[in-house]
Fold this sequence. Notes:
By secondary structure, this protein is α/β, with parallel strands linked by helices. It contains ten helices and eleven strands. The two termini are 23 Å apart.
Amino acid sequence: MNGTYLLAGHRVHRMGFGAMQLPGPRVFGPPRDRQEALDVLRYAVEAGVNHIDTAQFYGPDVANELIHAALHPYPEELVLVSKVGARRDDTGGIHEAQRPEQLREGVLANLASLHLDQVPVVNLRRHPEADVPFDEQVAAMVAMRDEGLIGAVGLSNVTTEQYQIAKAMTEVACVQNAYSLADRTDQPLLDACAADGVPYVPFFPLGSAFQLGKPVLTAPAVVETASRLGVTTAQVALAWLLRRSPNVLLIPGTSSLSHLRENLAAAELELDAQAMGDIG
Length: 280
């Protein structure tokens, strides 16, 4: 499983699982195949995954309900990480839910759908155009941690400056931002987290689903490395992230058992010096 790292005081395997792809198309509605979605979750945990990323607004409620149905009572070593800051409407639209009272509503919704008294980690998902002061949001998250509703405060979609603001207010459990071998603009924040011993969890590790051309999986160095090593381009991209920094935790998501096995195998893939040099 390519080592472990501390996440909010819990030692987790660096290859985790993201539940975003378990609901239906556009992360809305029931899964294409409910039984396979349940099997994916169970297989992941049986294979050693002990870090699952989710959100109440995945579905909405669908991902959390599947996690509960598949895994409850949860293994003691399993760390569930959710996020707040958004909501879905009846047609699947995504809307901001950034005000402190909305963050609280989101946490309570996660507790209800996951059947937990406390969510181990909850990320504040900051909207770049939010009109709520960031420090007020962090204060609301800290208050919920102190109340016992959440175990630790994480951040998502934040700038380096916002990370520093939050770090001055509280211990930051993790940072979840966009990062991949084709998009390294967040490198300064990854480096800051590494220096602080804070887990960095890249979303879109294989590139955004909204990005045409799949620049991660079609990058010539990735394609050539995959061919030379006899693996898939996705495995190369995931293994590269694990080599990038020891504080990187991965949460690739899938609703397919075959893709899950492929992703988990990437944790055992050792990229050689030639591969790291070619990819950069």
